[in-house]
Amino acid sequence: MKLLAPEFVAKLSNMELKARTIVEGFIVGLHKSPYHGFSVEFSEYRPYITGDPIKEIDWRAYGRTDKLYIKKHEEETNLRSYIVLDKSASMGFTTTGITKLEYASCLAGALAYLMIKQKDAVGLMLFDRDVVDYLPPSATKVRLFELLARLENLSAGGETSIRLPLDKLSESVRRRSLVIVISDLFDEPEETISSIKRIHFAKSELIVFHILDPAEKTFNYREEAIFEDLETGRRIQTQPWVLRGDYQKKVREFADKIRYELRDAMIDYIPIDTSTPFELSLMAYLYKRSKLL
Amino acid sequence: MLSWLNNIYLFGLVLATIPILIHFLTRRKLKLIKFSTLRFIDEIQRTRMRSFKLKQILLLIIRTLIITFFVLAFARPTIRGVFRPSAGAHERTSVVILLDNSFSTSQELGGIDLFTLEKTGARKLISLLKEGDEVSFALFNAEVHPLTNHFTRAFQRLDRIIDTLSISYCGTNIAKALAFAKDELKYAKNANKEIYILTDNRLSGWKGFRSEDFKLKEARVFLLIYKGSEDNLCVSKVSFPAQLIEVGKPFEISYEVANYSGRDYSAIVSNLFIDDERVAQSELVPRKLGYVSGGLVGNISKGGYHYGCVTIDNDALAVDDVYYFSFKVPEKYRVLVLGGSERIYLKFALAPVDSEGFFIISDYDYSQGINARFDEYDAVVISSPPAMAPEFMSRLRTAIESGKGLIVFTGEKTDLKSWGNFFSPQISLFGVIGAQAGYVGWGRVSYNHPIFQPFDPHLPLPTVNFYRIVQASAQTGIIAEYGNNLPAIIETKIGQGKVIVVTSSVEPSWSTLYISGAFIPFIQRAVQYVAKDVARFDEPFTVGTSALRVLEEANITSRLILQDPRGNRSYLQPKAWTGKIGVLTPQLNFPGIYRIFSDKGELVDLFAVNLPSEESDLKPLDEKAKNDFIIINPQNEELTGAVFSSRYGKELWKPFLLLVFFLMVIELVLGSNWRKAKE
After folding, report:
1. Looking at beta carbons, which residues of chain B come within 8 Å of A241?
2. One domain for residues B383 and B507
3. Which chain B residues have a beta carbon less than 8 Å from that of A188?
């Protein structure tokens, strides 16, 4: 499977194009890949084989191509998905050319595109300290365009606080829904974990995409510098190489704590960074969906 | 207290601010990085950065110190010595340099003599002088020889002067050199005052030095000691044993070798040269710290002036391995014989029929000889002298005192009172006595006396019957006695002249001496002995002194020419002293044989000059005995460093560089951790 570089996708003109590029590329790649058995539910044609029912022949396709194709009909589903996207100021950080928020938006758009294409209902919740915007789930193409439009106009800002938005979501989410959280999770880990678990207890499934910039993991700066917190505006002058070891350890402990807690609660935790191809995230979604249906 | 030799480099200390400047400039250009969250940095910053900041400050200090100490090392820091209080290190200096060129500095070490090393040291000292310094330069040995008119700043000219300096043959007198330096400092214009004495520091050179005479609070006195070997042999003395030197007959020369070493030597060879020809050789074994004497036998084929030397094998100090001497053997003796008729026996004894005119004789009776000029004769023989006029007696005494010889035979007419007074107090004459048994013969005889040396001591002297004798007494000088133990022949001295008194007479009524076989040898040898005896072997002069020479030719008035052992010639003007003609030479600078010629080129005098023997003792002065001096051994320590160390204190540039190296190692270790972390 040839994967799309996130930087390339970020350069595309609008969110619909981005989402379609990601998803179409993903589907084409998926057909050629050993992951075909993930049963992506969408319409497709296949050559007629003797024994196939005559009524399943697509005569339109025959009219265009003079070849007999069998049209495989899509299955209707009732999966309701919520994409919960963190748009706090920390999501505006980048060292790779694509901010975490841009990456998250592309990922959310691609997921929504894929979901609508599979007749799943998809909703969107944007948050920073609180819920900033909310689109209830719907499987219509109109909803998709609304959702993509929100994502396209998104800009990072505000401090991160996961607890309140998730608590609000847990009140409205139906049973057997899929909640996809895309965030850098820069909040108190205990609160983050407990909020996520609360949704999980409401019989909903969760996928948590923990998105970080590579520099946030490595802290690979070489010169003394003044670091300014994107959310609080506070500054610290420091020699990064002095802190690097301890920093990496701290971040690792932070991520591990969330990962182990969520794993214990049977919640999918997908650590990604802004250089991770989107397809890997989509694959994680499909894997989860296949388990739910 | 620190001082700096190259204080111009101290301006380089501004470089020490470079690390601090870099530190602050880097801080001013700090980049602002917007980062997603500082939550992870906060905690670490509190703990890690505290120690990091400390390390950073430490590194900054170390880097600053590295540059600081590096610059300071170039400025050549010194810590002041404790020798003497002095003016500031950077004051101008007045320096007195005294260079020992006594002959002991000719000792060679590894093919280079000590004086050459001293000259190198002097050049080095002069090269250390700075603008505004001044120097007074002098050579010294037994005397001081200034080479500059007090102080000078023409240092380059001194270099050329040093090239021309050579070793003298004189001894050493450091006390005199120090007194000169002390006086010289009165002309010094600068605040810093220093005296440098470059010497081989022999103990004898310090003779006469008293520390209390030489207290200098305002000056530092450096003693630059050039050490040589302490082992040395030298020929310290040559002498002629009492003997008559006769042409064609062997004679003996005694010599003495001094061993100043602390070790015994195996046999060394000594040589006797006479008139530039080696005539004898022998061996002797010098024991440590002692003297050993030997004898060598020489021979001459003609009379006149002779010279020679005794040499031994060369050692490290070769110049004192030779000792020069000179002597004169008269070709003829002029003899005045005064007496009655019996003087004929004396005249015939001195001039036998077959003689070759060895004695030129004038004989007079007393009435004729009363006005004789005694200075025209080598010896005067008087027989049975009566009372003479006081004027005669006075002239005779003067002549004897000046070195003429006198032989007196008492006899029938001898006026014992006046002649007793003449010989008093050495000899007393009492009266004439007859022999109790009719006559007496020879009693005890000193056969080792030069007069009796030809006689075999194991055989009796030819018989003489002495019928009458003059009773005499003498404390010393009795060289023959009668059989009755009364003095027969007495020797004494009046002034420089030798006197022989025979207490009997050649008159037949007094003795049979005139017909005895002993008579002719006795009278001839006695005349030679008193006329020109071994006592006239020239005592050598010493280098550094002047010689007063009395000339035998009393009628010389025109100027004379002095030729030194190297062939250099100078003029001498003869002068008259109480009837004698003499010359005073200038200072004698070389050992060897000096000759004096008349303006016609005739040799009129010859004498030997030797080295001062005390200079041959190479034993050094204990350096600990010289608390007042700053001792430097230029052969073992670097002169510049030693002088600067003493002048300004101990140089510290090496410890400073070591410190720089040490700090660099620390910086490397601390910095490498930092750089590794950065990468």
Report:
1. 674, 677-679
2. yes
3. none
A250 at B interface, C-beta within 8 A? yes
Question: Distance, in angstroms, between A169 CA and closest chain B CA?
Answer: 25
One-letter amino acid of B80: R
* A233 and B CB contact within 8 Å: no
d(CA B398, CA B391): 11
Which of these, B167, B176, B163, B147, lies nearest to B102 by C-alpha position? B167
B552 in the same domain as B527: no
Residue B83 pLDDT exceeds 50: no
Query: Model confidence over B209-242: pLDDT tens digits?
Result: 887 777 777 788 888 999 888 889 999 999 888 7
User: What distance in Å separates the CA atoms of residue B118 and residue B125, rounded to the nearest whole number?
Assistant: 10
pLDDT band with cut points at 50, 70 and 90 for residue A34: very low
Task: Give the gap in angstroms from C-alpha B32 to the nearest C-alpha of chain A.
Answer: 5
Residue B53 contacts A where some CB pair is shorter than 8 Å: no
Amino acid at B343: R
CA distance linking residue A100 with residue A87, whole number of Å: 9
Cβ within 8 Å of A, B 3-42: 26-27, 30-42
ipTM over 0.90: no
- Look at residue B486 and tell me if it is in a domain: yes
Greater confidence (B217 vs A129) lies with: A129
- What is the Cα–Cα distance from A103 to A213, expressed in whole angstroms? 10
CA angle A219, A224, A225 (to 5 degrees): 80
CATH of the domain at B632: 3.40.50.410
Q: Kindly list the residues from chain A whose CB atom is less than 8 angstroms away from the CB atom of residue B37.
A: 90, 186, 229-231
* Among B305, B330, B355, residue at a domain's last position: B330
pLDDT band at B207 (very low <50, low <70, confident <90, very high): confident
| Topology of domain A80-292, CATH | Rossmann fold (3.40.50)
Nearest CA in chain A to B52: A242
Q: Which of residues 100-119 of A touch B (CB under 8 A)?
A: 100
Number of structural domains in chain B: 5
- Residue B149 within a domain: yes
Instruction: Give the domain range for residue B66.
Output: 2-29+37-80+653-678
| B88 lies in some domain | no
pLDDT for B410 equals: 92
pTM: 0.57
